Amino acid sequence: MENVILVIHLLLALALIGVVLMQRSEGGGLGMGGGGGGGAVSARSAGTALGKLTWILGVAFICTTLTLTVIAASKASGVSVMDRLGGATAPAAETDSSLPGLDTDGLLPPPSAGDTGDAPLVPRAD
Predict the structure, then answer these.
(1) Is residue 65 part of a domain?
(2) b/e for 7-18, b at 16 or more Cβ within 10 A?
(3) Dihedrals φ, ψ of 20, to 5°?
(4) Mean pLDDT over residues 33-61, rounded?
(5) How many domains in the chain?
(6) Distance CA 123, CA 126 (A)
(7) How far apart are CA 61 and CA 59, in angstroms?
(8) Cα distance between residue 22 and residue 50, in whole Å
(9) CB neighbours of residue 54 within 10 Å
(10) Residue 89 lies in a domain
């Protein structure tokens, strides 16, 4: 059922794009130019067949959008994604046998025998 609605939704989107592109341009943006009426919506443009078809396709597009949203929400589990991420524990880090000499975290090599930890961060230029 969801796939059928999705196909109808895509066809409606393509039809809506086509109908909007077929409409006559008024000049300026949002119908502000050419021929009185003024404002974003004039009474003259609302009565055309393409205008009515645009409204019908727009309403149908919104209905299929809401239907797909309801179907997706009903299929979703009651657990949030954040709840699933927070409740899971990270797997224990395993040491890689191909990298000898790494500590148990696998991040830093073990300290050398004479290392006191106060060495400079950059190597000395000798």
Answers:
(1) yes
(2) ebbeebeebbee
(3) -65, -40
(4) 72
(5) 1
(6) 9
(7) 5
(8) 8
(9) 19
(10) no
> For residue 49, what are its two tokens?
């067949």
Query: pLDDT tens, 69-78?
Result: 999 888 877 7
112 or 91, higher pLDDT: 112
Is the pTM above the cut of 0.85?
Answer: no
Domain range spanning residue 16? Answer: 1-24+48-75
Q: What is the pLDDT of residue 15?
A: 96
Residue type, 47: G
Mean pLDDT of the chain: 73
Show Cβ contacts of residue 49 under 8 Å, excluding neighbours closer than 6 positions.
none
Return the number of other C-beta atoms located less than 10 Å from residue 64's C-beta. 19
Q: Is 30 domain-assigned?
A: no
Listed residue (45, 19, 41) closest to 30, CA to CA: 41
What interhelical angle do 2-22 and 49-75 show, nearest 10? 150
* Average pLDDT for 32-42: 52
Task: Report, as an integer, the average pLDDT of 59-73.
Answer: 94
Could you tell me if 117 and 111 are in contact, meaning their C-beta atoms sit under 8 angstroms apart?
A: yes
